[in-house]
Design brief:
It comes from Micromonospora acroterricola. This is Dynamin family protein. Helices cover about 55% and strands about 10% of the residues. It is of the alpha/beta class. The chain is globular, with a radius of gyration of 25 Å.
Length: about 475
């Protein structure tokens, strides 16, 4: 929320200025009009990362069904969007679009690519699910190697086509940080790391597969987020085991019955059978469990997931519903979805505007015309004054460190900057039907209280700067009310 022109309004106006500037270039005008249309489309979130970082597994966990990957589609961008019926369309390079055969299963679907994947650039999968009503998820090729001048072709396209990115990494190693650093060359990229969440996506492997490995992974994520180098590259760091999260979301009664049977085996005795996949599949278990059931459990849960689930059943999560909820929570999937909601979905207009500004800037630099320098300067001015970005960075900082504020002040600050919703009533913590007078009184009171904190010399610099962001948000709410908004 800004005092004056909102970021999405500024981006819309700049797009049309650019259209006027390139009116003699039909191809450039088509690109810009495409960006105008994108402003009204669902938020595009790409799931990116190196080979075997678990992109498809995390994507399936987010959707709660086994939909990805499309078999044989290595090197292809696969778009998952909401649709009335399951449908898949391939877009080969230089050829007409082709409908693909979709086979539904009890747990999701399978798509028959039908020809060499090298001919296909994109596949669009329509799948009816609530998870895709507000977003389009993009399963991307592995980030490997570099192209000309050290560029990463996959990430170049990810940043061009997506509004936000879940960047998956096993442990946030230096090579992954260099990938993200290579994407911050433009004015838009350098302005604020507000469209990337780093996901430690193999959290179940942390700590050598011990039961407390997921807790260790969350602690590692918090340490990463406090690292200034990491903080300059992403808006949040979340640890998540996509495998455990997906297993929790798809847990069936038959799965639970098998896990409960295993939980009846003393822990030390069961552990001996979970040292390797071969031992679990072919060993003589002290309880009756058919080989087909064992294989299905291993495929769905993995050894770590079986060990964790059995431990949870013994600890009192003794029904399918209870065990499912606890597996999802422990996996980090709940935290990841909440982070996506607060950082991405609730900030849809901001991220859409950011994508539009990036597209215009790229065009202006690649094909400069008279007046291009002035528009680049305008983009830099818009970004410098984009309060929406400051709100998002403060929101994550409050959740990860509190900045030294007590819990009550943290909760109020989070609410005022949109952490509980970006509408006026949600920000001010009042009933939705509140009168304009009531909204004004609450906003004005909050503004004065947080202005006192912003000017308090006894507070740290970080606290005063955080308070300044809250004050600016309150000013924005008052300006919106003065203009007749609610």
């Amino acid at each position: 929320m800004t005092v004056g022109l909102r970021l999405d309004e500024a981006a819309w106006g700049l797009l049309h200025q650019a259209i006027d500037l390139y009116q003699d270039n039909p191809r450039a005008v088509a690109q810009l009009r495409h960006q105008v249309a994108r402003l009204e489309q669902p938020l595009r979130i790409a799931v990116a990362g190196p080979w075997r970082s678990g992109k498809s597994t995390v994507l399936n966990a987010l959707m709660g069904e086994e939909v990805a990957p499309v078999e044989g589609a290595d090197g292809v961008f696969t778009w998952y969007e909401d649709g009335a019926q399951p449908r898949a369309t391939a877009y080969p390079a230089g050829q007409p679009a082709q409908e693909l055969t979709v086979v539904k299963s009890a747990t999701g679907m399978r798509v028959d690519l039908g020809w060499r994947a090298g001919e296909v650039r994109d596949i669009v999968v329509q799948w009816p699910t609530r998870a895709l009503r507000q977003v389009t998820l993009i399963d991307t090729p592995a980030v490997t190697g570099t192209g000309e001048q050290g560029r990463l072709p996959v990430m170049d396209r990810v940043l061009r086509d997506a509004d936000a990115v879940l960047y998956l990494t096993r442990d946030g190693r230096d090579s992954d940080l260099r990938v993200l650093e290579s994407t911050r060359e433009s004015a838009v990229g350098q302005a604020a790391p507000v469209n990337v969440i780093m996901v430690l996506s193999r959290a179940d492997e942390t700590g050598g597969g011990r039961i407390d490995g997921l807790l260790t992974a969350r602690q590692l994520a918090r340490r990463h987020h406090r690292d200034p180098r990491v903080g300059a590259l992403c808006v949040n760091v979340v640890a998540c085991s996509g495998a455990v999260g997906l297993a929790g979301r798809m847990l069936s009664e038959s799965d639970f019955a098998a896990l409960a049977t295993l939980a009846g085996v003393p822990r030390a005795e069961l552990e001996a059978h979970l040292l390797s996949a071969d031992r679990f599949l072919r060993g003589e278990l002290p309880v009756r469990l058919d080989p087909e059931v064992r294989a299905a459990l291993l495929d769905r849960f993995g050894l770590f997931g079986i060990r964790l689930a059995a431990t949870l059943v013994r600890s009192g999560f003794d029904s399918r519903v209870k065990l499912s909820a606890e597996l999802i929570r422990r996996s980090g999937l709940t935290e990841l979805r909440e982070s996506m909601t607060r950082c991405f979905i609730d900030r849809r207009d901001t991220l859409k505007a950011r994508s539009a500004l990036a597209a215009v800037e790229a065009l202006l630099r690649a094909e400069p015309v008279r007046g291009a320098d002035e528009l680049v300067g305008t983009i830099e001015q818009i970004l410098a004054g984009a309060h929406e970005f400051r709100e998002l960075r403060l929101l994550v900082a409050l959740r990860n460190s509190r900045l030294g504020f007590d819990a009550e002040l943290v909760a109020e600050a989070q609410r005022l900057i949109g952490g509980d919703g970006v509408g006026l009533a949600a920000r001010l913590g009042v009933e939705h039907e509140a009168t304009v007078q009531r909204l004004w009184e609450v906003a004005a009171d909050a503004q004065w209280r947080w202005r006192d904190r912003a000017e308090d010399p006894l507070l740290s610099l970080a606290q005063r700067r955080g308070a300044q962001v809250v004050v600016r948000s309150c000013e924005g709410m008052l300006a919106e009310l003065a203009a007749g908004g609610r």
